[in-house]
Design a protein that fits this description.
Length: 262
């Protein structure tokens, strides 16, 4: 029943965006887009993402490395005459390395990847439960060797909690375990400081003010996947990203490249 509901909701949502996006154009500003995978179709080709980038470029979109986008946003260096897009991916699925990274390499782009250490290190039972009941997709995680290569080549590795749990809690011990614990584990593996954190599920309702406090005291930069018409949430403490996936129609992606405010 739930799967049917989600299927119909997606169908009608896509119909609505098809209509609303007819006259959409990329708007000036810095836009951080956040995906999770190449496609739910595990047989999909990396050409999906390459073609999207090509079409976005032809539509007037410019691309920017993730760290450059963050610097522009935090320094309020926002262009008024061009649309700049940077990319991030959450959950650390294997195809981020095998399918998405080669396209980023081709376009000379550096992105950010927010990972859950326990998804990488967990038992087979843990991983199957994570896929089936947490992220709802049958995709395996990257290995630490893949993640180390991404970091060595200039991509940003960020934390996404240990277990991809909602942070809408006031339990400080739980929050520190999930937030600071993920930072410690990733730093142990990469031997570099991890300064970026994106909270699971992305919407502002999935993190409490206490969670924001813990995250901001642990990381230099914290990200949502919500409130994308504004650059910041929680009084300037959280940078907002906008959801997309590599297999979305071009006009759907452009529809969300709207004007933004500080």
């Amino acid at each position: 029943m739930k799967s049917n509901y989600l299927m119909y909701r997606k169908f009608f949502r896509n119909m609505m965006i098809d209509v609303l996006s007819i006259v959409s154009k990329p708007r000036p500003g810095v836009h951080i887009l956040n995906g999770h995978f190449l496609s739910l179709d595990n047989s999909a080709s990396p050409e999906l993402f390459h073609n999207l980038l090509y079409d976005l470029k032809n539509a007037g979109v410019g691309f920017i490395n993730f760290t450059d986008a963050v610097n522009r946003i935090t320094e309020l260096n926002i262009p008024t005459d061009k649309c700049l897009v940077a990319f991030t991916w959450d959950d650390g699925f294997e195809e981020c390395f095998t399918k998405i990274k080669p396209v980023l390499d081709e376009w000379n782009l550096k992105a950010a990847f927010f990972i859950n250490p326990n998804f990488i290190d967990g038992s087979n039972v843990y991983k199957e439960n994570f896929k089936k009941n947490v992220v709802l997709t049958n995709k395996n995680p990257m290995t630490w060797d893949m993640i180390k290569q991404l970091a060595a080549e200039g991509h940003t590795i960020g934390a996404h909690t240990l277990d991809h749990l909602s942070l809408n809690s006031t339990d400080v011990d739980f929050l520190k375990h999930q937030i600071a614990g993920s930072k410690i584990r990733i730093e142990e593996q990469l031997n570099v400081e991890v300064a970026h954190f994106a909270f699971p599920y992305g919407q502002l309702k999935y993190i409490s003010l206490t969670g924001v406090d813990v995250a901001c005291s642990t990381f230099s930069y914290v990200y949502s996947q919500d409130n994308y018409r504004r650059y910041f949430s929680f009084n300037g403490r959280v940078i907002n990203r906008r959801h997309f996936e590599c297999d979305w129609p071009l006009k759907h992606v452009i529809y969300f490249l709207k004007s933004k405010s500080l």
